[in-house]
């Protein structure tokens, strides 16, 4: 999460700023907008794949897939999604799948909004 004072230029940037930690994302990408776009694009591709896979009612979610979702979410500062994926990864029983799917699609939408802002 954000280690210091938030960058006021990144506050209140709509849906992306509510779901993604834009300060974290900027630090992760060294404030390089092109690199930020690459990271967001990779996250969007993974979120789309995982979201579709999890939306299938008979699809199981192996721990390694939950681990990958968690890592992808952390890379873009989608802390809520990362926390849900971690709970899913460590669960002995099936957690709330619909909640995880909704969080994936929410983070995907925020990443797409941020990507549009960068264009």
TrEMBL record:
Taxonomic superkingdom: Bacteria
Keywords: Two-component regulatory system
The keyword Membrane is annotated on this UniProt entry: no
Domain (HPt) ranges: 64-102
One Pfam family this sequence matches: Hpt
InterPro entries: HPT_dom_sf (IPR036641), Sig_transdc_His_kin_Hpt_dom (IPR008207)
Name of this chain's protein: Hpt domain-containing protein
């Amino acid at each position: 999460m954000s280690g210091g004072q938030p960058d006021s230029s990144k506050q209140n940037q709509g849906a992306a700023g509510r779901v993604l930690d834009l300060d974290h994302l900027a630090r992760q990408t060294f404030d390089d907008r092109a690199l930020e776009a690459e990271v967001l694009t990779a996250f969007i591709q993974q979120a789309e794949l995982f979201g579709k896979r999890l939306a299938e009612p008979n699809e199981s979610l192996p721990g390694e897939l939950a681990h990958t979702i968690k890592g992808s979410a952390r890379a873009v500062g989608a802390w809520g999604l990362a926390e849900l994926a971690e709970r899913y990864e460590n669960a002995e029983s099936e957690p709330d799948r619909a909640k995880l799917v909704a969080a994936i699609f929410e983070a995907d939408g925020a990443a797409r909004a941020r990507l549009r802002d960068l264009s």
